[in-house]
């Protein structure tokens, strides 16, 4: 069978299983088993799938995933992240689009604390939307910052999506985590500037209001006791990876330990927090690792049938600039992101795209960060971006999905501008990993 026919057959079978109600991970496993029977045989094919799953899940590079998830879960359920929001609010002062900027700034920090786009959007939505509505903020100025900040969780370390991409694509997890710092800050800055500008030009979008004054003593006390411990934990985790003093796994273990110690010091670590933390960590980690096992079998099948080499040779034979192939792959990720959740997209695209990028001699970390950004954009892109439905759950019932779609278009445009900047200046991604490796 031709290589392109193998890929088409796989996707047709996958869509059939998904449409009849299979979870994506189980749909992948079912399709893998059907294809090994077709192209190999049942006994040796099943053995191949089991061995590939064992090798992928036994990889040391994946161990940061449950540890970083644990870190985010305990900080979220203990309520410590909300203390950070209060500190930022005291220091913000009276600036244009104050609540929008507060949401973006705190959301960027929350992304580093949680590593989860859904948790980030849900937390910001439940805490900020009521206050924004009370102050008369336009939907564009309330929903936009929440979804924009939520999309950053895919690239700002410690991103579990970045770790998963590294495991699937054979890319250095440490380099991916460090490489996401500057692009994440760039996107956050672009969005903050965007909301400040439109708020300054049209004050009706974000009406000014009297801000409760805080004394310098309260501000400094909040900074020292509420903000520094959390930010210091994130800085420690990132610095350990960046300096090479510890592996991502060791850094994640230190981060998880620190995330357990902090709530205990604040008196927030009780049975309810521990229960919710453990349940959330087991659920999310189990889902991710099962998906990874299924994707490993898919990669093996692509290699065995010659589909991978066929796709690489087809792309290399195109009489076009190599960068156009990169743009085409990113467009596919963006399109898939409008109706499929990010981890499933990684399962589908990584085994196909990474060999092509390697053959075209592009930097894999640079391409990986671009993919992660596009996954974040897909998370907020109509009609079925996952975070759109998360934010819908915290908005009043009279707000239509059409209004939510309109409110997020500016953030999507700004994010796409960020993608273009990073494509033109790849050093934004590659500089920090290169400095850390010296």
Summarize the entry for a quick read:
By secondary structure, this protein is mainly α.
Query: Mean pLDDT, as a whole number?
Result: 82
Distance between the termini: 47 Å
Q: What is the β-strand count?
A: 0
Radius of gyration: 22 Å
Helix content percent band: over 70%
- Biggest sheet, open or closed, and with what strands and sense? none
Point out poorly predicted stretches.
none
Tally of domains: 1
| Helix/strand order, N-terminal first | HHHHHHHHHHHHHHHHHHHHH
Residues in β-strands, percent: under 5%
Estimate the global geometry from the Cα principal axes: globular
What class, by secondary structure content?
mainly alpha
Helix count, DSSP H or I runs of 4 or more residues: 21
Keywords: Cell inner membrane, Cell membrane, Membrane, Transmembrane, Transmembrane helix
Pfam family, one: DctM
Subcellular location: Cell inner membrane
Protein name: TRAP transporter large permease
Explain how this protein is built:
- GO terms for molecular function: transmembrane transporter activity.
- Residues 11-428 form the TRAP C4-dicarboxylate transport system permease DctM subunit domain.
- InterPro entries: DctM (IPR010656), TRAP_DctM (IPR004681).
- It is found in: Cell inner membrane.
- It is a multi-pass membrane protein.
- The chain is mainly α.
- Helix 1 (3-19) packs across helix 15 (307-316), helix 8 crosses helix 20 and helix 14 crosses helix 17 (342-359).
- The protein has one domain.
- The model has no long low-confidence stretch (mean pLDDT 82).
- Helices cover 79% and strands 0% of the residues.
- It is globular.
- The chain has helices spanning 3-19, 24-39, 42-57, 64-77, 80-92, 98-114, 117-134, 139-151, 160-169, 173-179, 181-201, 216-243, 248-266, 271-305, 307-316, 322-337, 342-359, 364-379, 386-392, 401-424, 427-436.
- The protein is built from 21 helices and no strands.
